[in-house]
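Q: Hi! First time asking for a complex rather than a single chain. Here are the components, and I think there are two in total. Is that enough to go on?
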Amino acid sequence: MIDKEVVSVAEAVADVFDGATVMIGGFGEAGSPIELIHALIDQGATDLTVINNNTGSGEVGLAALIKAGRVSKMICSYPRSTNSTVFPDQYRSGHTALELVPQGTLAERIRAGGAGIPAFYTPSAVGTPLGEGLERRTFDGRDYLMVLGLTADFALIKGRVADRHGNVVYNKTARNFSPLMATAAATTVVQAASVVSAGELDPEVIVTPGIFVHRVVAVANPAHESALIAAGASYP
Amino acid sequence: MSEHSTVTGLTRDEMAQRCALDIPDGSYVNLGIGIPELVAAHVPEGREFIYHTENGLLGMGPSPEPGAGDPELINAGKRQVTANPGAAYFNHADSFVMIRGGHLDLCVLGALQVSQSGDLANWSTGAPGAIPAVGGAMDLVAGVKTVYLITQHTTRNGEPKLVESCSFPLTGLGVVDRIYTDLAVIDVVDEGFQVVELSPGVSFEYVQERTGAPLIPADAGTCG
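A: Yes, that's all I need. Here is the structure of the assembled complex.
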């Protein structure tokens, strides 16, 4: 019987290894799997390459993982936050490298990685510093850049409801990169506010089909990053 | 400093209002962070715009009532918003299919510099030690059919933002169609910057003095 549910966030991230590439869902705090990230901090894996649109806020969630010194490289589009100096500090000290990618290119690189497409051409960033060094080709008189698909060892994502097959639905704009990341990682781990039996989710509304998901863990009342920051929280 | 004393040209709100006048009814629009966001408050009577935010919402509505928001319903600036009736959520790849695939009619962005050939610099001043951050700007200018800018005509130090060629790192080459500043509405045409309209009480010479490239008067008639 297929049952992808695991009992704890600790078990869900137990095999993340040093040097792993980890995609983490979320755009700002929307969709950020804070409990899985905190479990990863507890677990201790380091020298991680992390793929997320941002670099976290305050000193919780992704920012806490970076602050703990576990991230050797960030691949993201917008590593700036009004209320966190964690990434800038790690970047300036040389501890965390940065690969800056236009947001749409980042999304499509992840989609391509999950779809078995090794590379594709995009018009974004032509003639800009972010296009330097990339192979250029002209189609129908317009210039495009070749960029590579992205895959990862793990994806950590947050859903609203999941079932034991790994089918997932999301909450509003918390969906963002997560359905793409689920397809692009060797092991995709989903935390969901509720985990239901197979058949309870309407097949017409499932956003991430279970084939892309390997582990599901219930986190009944997930924390919101902004609430933690407002309360002055830091992790650990 | 009094709000009403020596200010020449339009306020931020008036710039946004002027821009909104040019957006056709039924347009699918992406508004950048900053002054462009103010456009949403000035939709002309009888028109409906559908707002796209690149983090996965079409049909974005205004900020929620205090206490009624959801931290997972936000815009690209990471502020809480609402979803209008008829709204749709989608993933990031689909969101940039809308952008890069040319499905959005218009985007309104901010600017650090814009050149007379329509090159835009709006993500980095290239200052040493600055953390570079680009977001979706490069995809928007590469894919959206029409690109409008709303920006102050000069920097806080009085330096022109409309220039012959950008010194800051580019966002895109030859992508800008029209610029709304506090002093004028200016089109980017084949020959350079063409004034479409001057703000009330502002002369052509006054705008030219604050522009880093030659301006073509409104009545010069070009083929751009």
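A: The domain at 5-115+150-159+175-197+204-230 of chain A is CATH 3.40.1080.10 (Glutaconate Coenzyme A-transferase). Let me know if you'd like any chain examined more closely.
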